[in-house]
Amino acid sequence: MLITTIHLQNFRNYEELTLDLAPTLNIFLGPNAQGKTNLLEAVYYASLTHSHRTREDRDLITFQAPAALLQLAFSRADVGNRLDIQIPRQGRRKILMNGQRIPPRDLIGTLSTVLFSPEDLSLVKGAPAGRRRFLDREISQASSAYYHELLTYNHLLAQRNTLLKNMRDNHAPQNLLDPWDAQLAASAAKLTAKRQDAVKKLQSLATVMQQKISGNEENLTLSYELHGAEEAPDVTSTLELWYNKRLEARRSLDLLRGTTSVGPHRDDLALAVNGIDLRAYGSQGQQRTGALALKLAELEFLHAETGEYPILLLDDVMSELDAGRRKALLAFLAKERIQTIITATDAAYFPDEPFGTMYHVKNGSIKKA
Fold this sequence. Notes:
Elements lengths: L1 E10 L2 E7 L4 E5 L6 H13 L18 E10 L2 E10 L5 E4 L2 E2 L11 E4 L5 H4 L2 H15 L1 H27 L7 H37 L5 E6 L10 H14 L1 H7 L10 E6 L2 E2 H4 L2 H23 L4 E5 L7 H14 L3 E5 L12 E6 L2 E4 L1
Parallel strand pairs: 3-13, 3-14, 8-12, 12-13
Antiparallel strand pairs: 1-2, 1-4, 4-5, 5-6, 6-7, 9-10, 10-11, 14-15
Helix pairs in contact: 3-4, 3-9, 4-5, 4-7, 5-6, 5-9
C-alpha cells in the first residue's frame, strides 16, 4: 500500500494543494492550526469515508467554497489506482475509483490506514464503545464480509429497538420479537466469532509491540469480553444459540427499557499489563504505551490479513510520549519501512541525522525542508 500523490481543493484550509509523498517516512512540521492534521484527515477520509474529527462533511469544505475535492493516486499490490471524492456543500458526495462511481461501502478496505492521534490515548481508559469501534474499523478494513455483516447487524438492531418501543407503548405480545431475535442472533454470532478471532491474533502482536516500546518491561494481554457471560463460547453455532437464549431471557427488561441489552454492541476489549487491568489501574505512561501498542498491532494485523502494510498516520503523538518511547517507535518505523505520515510541532522530537522526508507547514502551504 503506497500513496504517491495527494491533491486537495478547498479541503479545510487547503485551497489548492498537490503533494508527492515519499514511500517511507513523511514528517510534517509546523505550529498548531496550520493544516498538519487536515492533511492526515484527508487520507483517513479517503480510507474510511468519514472524518475522525467531525460527523458533518460540510465541515471539511473551505469557508464559502461550494465543494471540496480530494484526489489520491496510490498503489495496492503494485497496481496503480486513482481515487476521486467530491464533497459538495449541498447534495450527495461522489466517489470515483479509477473513473467508476462506487458507493461508500465499496471503498472500505481499498486504501487501508491506521491512525493514532492524541484522542486515541483514551482508547484504553475510555468507554467500551471506543474499543468496539477500534475492533470494527480494524476488521472491516481486512474483511469486506465483516463490514457488510456489521451494517446488517446495526440495521437489525435499530429495527428491533424500534419494535420494542412500539410493543411497550401498545402492549403487544412478546412473540412478535421471535423473527427479529432469530436474525439478530445469527448476525451477532458472526460478528462476535470474527472479533474473538481477531483479538486472538492481536494478542500476540500487541504483546510484542508493548515490549518493544517499554524496553521489555511491560507485558500486554488482550481478551474479548462477551457482555453477560463469564466465558465466551467460541463456536459460531454455539454463539447463535447462546444469543437466542439471552435475547429471550431479557425480553421483559428490553421491553421496559425500549432497547436491546444483549449483543456485540455491548461487548468490550479487556487490556492488562503485567496482570493488572490497564483500563482501571494502569499508569498514564502504561495507558499511552498500551494505546500505541494496540495501534501498531493493528498495523501488523492488517499486514498479515491483506499482505500489505496500511498507511500509518501519526498525528502529534510525539509530544505525548517520553523520550524512550519516542525512540523505540521511530526505530520500529525506520526498520519496517512503512509509509508513514507524521505531524509534529518540533523537529527536536526526531534524530539529528537525516530521518525521513521533512516538510514545513504554514497556513495551508507545504514546502519540503
